[in-house]
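In this supplementary section we document a worked example of the pipeline. Step one takes a protein sequence of length 243 as its only input; no multiple sequence alignment statistics are reported here. Step two produces a three-dimensional model, which step three serialises into C-alpha cells for compact storage. The input and output of this example are shown verbatim.
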Amino acid sequence: MCAEPRPLIVVVEDEEELIKLISQQLENSGMNVQAYNRCAPALRFLQNNFANLLLLDITLPDSSGFELLKELKAQDINIPTIFLTGNSLEDDKIKGLNMGGDDYITKPFSYAELVARINAVLRRTEVAADFNVTKNVRTIDEPFDFLGTKVIPDRLEIAFPNGATHKIGRKELGILAYLSAHVGVVITRKELIHSVWGVHADIRSRSLDQYIVKVRAAFAKNGLSLDSFKTVHGIGYIFEPGK
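The serialised model returned by step three reads:
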C-alpha cells in the first residue's frame, strides 16, 4: 500500500533558529520543508518547482513578504499562503488577506496551532482544485458558445449545430476556453501554454500543436472551419471570429 504523499511547504523566514524549529515540527507532522531566509531564492525555487503551501514572513532582509506574494501572482504562480509574522497590526493582516493570503499567524504561536492551520488551508485548497479540468477551466463552469457550437465543460463535449456531439480532452477544452475569453487579441504561444498547462509547463514542447490539430479536425469533421483561429508567425495566435 502506497504511503500518502508528503506536502511540500516552502518556509521563508529570516530567523535561522526559528526556521530550524518550524522545519522540525512540520517534518515531524508528515510534511516536507524547503526553507529560505530571503525572498529572492524562494522566488527562484517557486518559478521552477511545485509546492503545496508557502509559509511567509513579512519582514525579510531583501524584500517583504507582501512583495514576494505580489511577484508570484504577477507571474501567475498561485500557491496557498500563510503569513507568519511578529507584526500584529490589523492593517497588515487585512492587507495580507486582501492580497490573496489564506491565513495570518502572529508570533509567538504554538506549533500545534501552526500545523493545524497549515492542514486546514491544505484541505480547503485541495477541495477547491477538485473541480479543475485544466488550469483555466473547471467542471462547474457554464457551457459557452464557440463558432456556433456549444462547449460543455462538465461533459468534456462540443455540441455541433448539426446535432452531433464530440468528446474532447482536457487540453482541447482549455484551449477553446482560453480563445473564447480572448477574442481579437494576439495570444503568445507561451501565454496559451501557461494558461492551460500551468506556469511550469515546457513552452518548447510541441504538445500544443498536436491538440490544436485535434480541435481543427473535430470542427472540420462536422462541417465547420477554424480559419478564424490564425497563427501569428513568431509570436503565437489570434482568434477573430467573423473575419
